[in-house]
Specification:
Length: 188
């Protein structure tokens, strides 16, 4: 009993230390899209969120989980998608390193582009940064073409302005010609 209390207190200290350390460094707001269409999709999204909170930064907002028709390669199972807003001190490339490590840890195997996967984590925005390197394009180049991204994004940040297209998430959604089905996922 006493041991449990001590270890609970130790965990609280670690968390306090972490948030203090974060408060000393400048943090950035990044939006991440999680997608899963194989295996136990709900559990995978929960685990991804936990690992992101542990290694990437504070999860400040999360959308509902959405059940979405596959986009690109349509002959594959439906996806669960979710968007997270995180405060992170990581630089963009470090953020990608972490999200890719989490994908690997959760069993992601890269097979076909746009094909079925246990987990995919895309970086949608990183503050108002515009970046194009061989490894990383920010904002995500397809985000404005996909309802499975725009609908959950609009739920948590309808007025965020795209730094290249100069439109809010809601305006991008209104202009989006994608008609694939996207609905809030209801369990049971
Ligand atoms: N990369 C460049 N920019 C980024 C970024 N902003 N975020 C590079 C993340 N990665 C970025 O990605 C390929 C490479 O993109 C990475 O090595 C990274 O250096 P990947 O995840 O290995 O391959 P992929 O996901 O098959 O290709 P791609 O082009 O990233 O596809 P998307 O855009 O991720 O689309 N339908 C529904 N309903 N829901 C989905 O979630 N997802 C996809 C995949 C297709 N259809 C879908 C969904
Ligand atoms: Mg991807």
């Amino acid at each position: 009993m006493a041991n449990e209390r001590t270890s609970e207190r130790a965990k609280e200290w670690v968390e306090e230390e972490r948030s203090f350390a974060r408060s000393l460094v400048h943090s950035f707001t990044a939006y991440l899209l999680l997608g899963a269409n194989l295996g136990d999709r709900i559990n995978t999204l929960h685990r991804a969120l936990d690992l992101i909170a542990e290694r990437v930064g504070t999860v400040v907002q999360k959308s509902a989980m959405y059940e979405t028709a596959p986009w690109g390669v349509t002959d594959q199972p439906t996806y669960l998608n979710q968007v997270l807003a995180i405060d992170t001190a990581l630089q963009p490339e470090e953020l990608l390193n972490q999200t890719q490590a989490i994908e690997h840890e959760l069993g992601r195997v890269r097979l076909e582009r746009w094909g079925a996967r246990l987990i995919d984590i895309d970086i949608l925005f990183y503050d108002q940064l515009i970046l194009k390197t061989p490894r990383l394009t920010i904002p995500h180049p397809y985000l404005h073409q996909r309802r499975f991204t725009l609908v959950p994004l609009a739920e948590i940040t309808p007025n965020l302005v795209h730094p290249i297209l100069h439109k809010t998430t809601l305006e991008l959604l209104a202009a989006c010609t994608d008609t694939s089905e996207v609905g809030v996922f209801v369990t049971g």
